[in-house]
Amino acid sequence: MEENKQVSTPTEAELERERALADTDHPIHHERVTKAIPEGYTSRQLYNDVIQIAWPSCVELLLTQLASMVDLMMVGQLGAWALTSVGLSTQPKFLVMTMFMALNVGATAMVARFKGAGDQENANVILRQALVLSLILSTIAAVVGYIFAPQLIQFMGSTEEATLIGGTQYLRIQMIGIPAVALTSVVTATMRGIGNSRIAMIYNIIANVVNVIFNYLLIGGNLGFPRLEVVGASLATILGQFVAFGIAVYMILRPKSYLRIKRGDSFKFDLPMIKRIVNVGIPAMIEQLLMRAGMIIFSKTVAGLGTVAFATHQVCMNIQALSFMNGQAFATSATSLMGQSLGKKRPDLAQAYCHRARRLGMMVSLFLGVVFFFFGGPIVALYNDDPMIVAEGAKMLMIVAITQPLQSSQFILAGALRGAGDTRATAYITFLTVLVVRPLLAIFLINSMNMGLLGAWVAIAVDQLIRSTLVLFRFNSGKWKKIIV
């Protein structure tokens, strides 16, 4: 990496000139994406840069998802009602998290641009502004989520008293930890913007270890601890989250950190910076809201199939989420390297990085597809050994296996587009696929074609096919090269 040099914040006039250039037929901005290797770089060097960012992120995501799987396996031993209780709380929790998740998209893109331009001072301004905004939004969201937890669980389709009580208890405890999760995610997002994914790996590994230990102690009441069942699982999760938050704060207080908080730093609102974060973050927020709305409609449709079917669905969704780590890890590389390359005014370098991130992700996705296709039954049995859940779950994982290459490509290229600040395009694509195609097709296949749970997962596969195709077309168009953030 080159030495950092301080660059002044672009004035509004300078931004206007960039926008004017972006609207012309300048070849830098309107050429379609190619696979040419940029002058002065080798393919091996590009691959190394991608892997350097992706592997810590991959380890972090993998261990986080494994901890989530262990969590659900322990909960699953309590019965289908417990799996359903946790499953019903998942979408409301993610809905509450939407605001600061979207904010982080803007923060990552801005920090990456400033890093590429050598502007450390303004990268740290983005960190501070994102922390303040995230604290305010997450606190409001947590209070609202806590108060309306019973209504949210009921809205998600809870039909039994046990799942309503268990889901409400689980969700309310999760709301207590939301501000800590939000602030930690800001540190993670901004660190990834500068290409440092190792720090997030460290504190998330520690948090997951804490989570698993307290799962063992509190779900079943081992080693003298009380048996708290679903409540214990939720407590264990937020204990791990608070540990991660503490370590993340320590990391940005270190004097040698590129992103750091120093004594005397201002946390007052910087409206020009907030506007730039929001310009990228608002479309991302709309995208996340659309995605959550679509997922809620989809989940409610599946919940109508009954407790056992929804428990099977929740297990398969949890296993599928393990495969997300592949796409998300290389998407982290694509987002960071895209932003930094555009900060250096090198769209040719950005597209070269993204092609290699996608190629690596594709290789891993093929391996995962083979595992899910041939070993789906034994994997599902780790959660619950009910023969019906195992048999149906194995069928669903065959669909997951087939969609792996599509899923990987979609994650990575969407991450690249977000790194470029092209969040409006991904919002439109999400609206069409997750809010329209997936839930409507699921409703049709389940209710009109009587395909049951299989119909829901066919809808997921169709969603992945259309979304992957549209994201690929958008990336290859090269229109992201003229985005000004």
What this model shows, in words?
With 485 residues, the chain is mainly α. Helix content is 80%, strand content 0%. The chain is built from 17 helices and no strands. It has helices at residues 12-22, 27-30, 43-76, 80-116, 120-147, 149-155, 161-176, 178-193, 198-218, 229-253, 271-303, 307-343, 347-381, 387-402, 404-419, 423-448, 453-477. Helix 9 (198-218) runs antiparallel to helix 10 (229-253) and helix 12 (307-343) packs antiparallel against helix 13. It is globular and about 60 Å long. It starts with 11 loop residues before the first helix and ends in an 8-residue tail after the last helix. Mean pLDDT is 84; it is low at 1-30.
Binned strand content: under 5%
In angstroms, what is the radius of gyration? Answer: 22 Å
Shape type: globular
Major sheet, described briefly?
none
Mean pLDDT over the full residue set: 84
Helical amount = over 70%
Number of helices: 17
Q: How many β-strand stretches?
A: 0
Coarse structural class: mainly alpha
End-to-end separation: 23 Å
Low-confidence stretches: 1-30
Helix-strand string: HHHHHHHHHHHHHHHHH
